[in-house]
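Milestone M4 deliverable, item 7.
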Amino acid sequence: MKKKIIHILSGIFPKRFVDYAYYKLTHPQVHKLRPHEKEVIGKANKQRFQFNEFDIQLYEWKAGPQKVMLIHGWGGQAGNFADLIERLVAKNITVLAFDGPSHGNSSTGKGSTSLFEFAELVGVLVEHFQVSKLVSHSFGGVATTYSLSQKQHLEIDKYALFTTPDRFADRISVVAEQAGLHNKVKKKLITKLELELKLDLSILNVSNFVKGISVKEAFIVHDTFDKVLSVEESKRVVENWSAATLEEVRETGHFRILRTDDVLTKVISFLEFD
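Output delivered:
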């Protein structure tokens, strides 16, 4: 009933709902950490890093000389990788992570952010940490592949992705449909974003980004029945990324995939630490 009312009202007052949708799209609703995730974050060495107008929270779990950097998804934070972090540190791997702009403990400042700010930070930190192995979750894959496409001198040996979206415009459509917004709102929102960004949103596809990045091997793992992000998106990406392989799993969902033992084992094995 609520979605039906929103659909009717957004068709009558599209501008108001465009402003609301834009706010939601640029102000991440960050999920709270679970108790175990807080515990793992509490064990990290912490450092502040100034990036544009953001005061970014960096994390390091210091172990051996080999290292990997983790990139969380939209509305997520570094602690979401808690189970993976513990497994890597147990193997004497140094783990590096961060809370993205307006996410987690980097939520000071203006409170809003964008794909481009997030992606720029990823590139800056890959250079700052001097890493050649990466792991991302969901939207973190969009930010990372876009960043690497803009900094083609960065060379990555291994990159593991816990799911990835493909078409940015499709994500706007999904969000609009889930909220019950009228098609008028979706069209006006896309127009607003294109005018602001001065580009055609149809080119913002991971399938495009991966064609110009230096990644030797990539591994995508995605639940066949992921209700948040269809596995078809990862399939399209792999079709356009010769360095990548896709493994479909089941009964992990979109978020529990980060806490599923056999999936973590596959990812760590792919990363090939000595």
